[in-house]
Amino acid sequence: MLTARIAVVVSGGGTNLQALIDAQARGELKSGQIALVIADKAGIGAIARAEKAGIDRKVIVRKEEGFEEKVLAALAEHRIDMAVLAGFLGILSADFIARFPGPILNIHPALIPSFCGKGFYGLRVHRAALDCGVKVTGATVHYVNEVPDGGRILLQKAVDVLPGDTPETLQRRVMEEAEWILLPQAAEIVCAQIVREKESNE
């Protein structure tokens, strides 16, 4: 069966990567195959998750010169159709986005357009939501363009903010109730589109 080849770009523990790996194992992510994990620093948990799942992995340090060129080369070498930013803390340049031919997805831990854009990542997002007093937050999967968190929204899921929440408890609930569900669903939607296009071109 024809599948789309996925690269997952990560900066941390890799819980969203694990959600994709698990969805693939359950047969829910059937139109795509995780072919490569790119970590932007050594020694992070996501690398161990990729290794355990038998997925090719590459460490390309974001703070070193030529990071984007090296990532583009790795994507080309592995014939990647779609890139997924899953807890990736960098911002890709407009040049990178223009040069990678496939779609790029990102998962953001809020309901865009709330609490998004440059500087909003990790616990900062949840702290901002609590500081504002919102009663509902959530997660968004969107296409990546040259504007941080500015691409077209693909899927969103709401999560209640509970009395007594801390940034840490809210982060965990948003991951469990939204991120880990949405990202595999979005990946399957886009991979199925890629497969249809490949089949129509054959």
Q: How would you describe what is shown here?
A:
The protein has a 7-stranded mixed beta sheet, with helices on both faces. It has helices at residues 15-26, 45-52, 67-77, 94-99, 123-132, 167-201, and strands at 4-10, 32-39, 57-59, 82-85, 104-108, 136-143, 153-160. The longest helix is centred in the C-terminal third of the chain and has 35 residues, at 167-201. The protein is α/β, with parallel strands linked by helices and 202 residues long. The radius of gyration is 16 Å and the shape is globular. The protein contains 6 helices and 7 strands, in the order E-H-E-H-E-H-E-H-E-H-E-E-H.
What oligomeric arrangement do these chains adopt? single chain
Structural class: alpha/beta
Radius of gyration: 16 Å
| Number of DSSP E strands | 7
Major sheet: size, sense and barrel closure?
Answer: 7 strands, mixed
Question: How far apart, in Å, are the first and last alpha carbons?
Answer: 14 Å
Shape: globular
What keywords describe this structure?
single chain, 202 residues, alpha/beta, 7-stranded mixed sheet, 6 helices, globular
Brief characterization of the structure:
By secondary structure, the chain is α/β, with parallel strands linked by helices. Helices cover 41% and strands 21% of the residues. It has 6 helices and 7 strands, in the order βαβαβαβαβαββα.
What secondary-structure arrangement, pairings included, does this model have?
Layout: E1 4-10, H1 15-26, E2 32-39, H2 45-52, E3 57-59, H3 67-77, E4 82-85, H4 94-99, E5 104-108, H5 123-132, E6 136-143, E7 153-160, H6 167-201
Parallel strand pairs: 1-2, 1-4, 2-3, 4-5
Antiparallel strand pairs: 5-6, 6-7
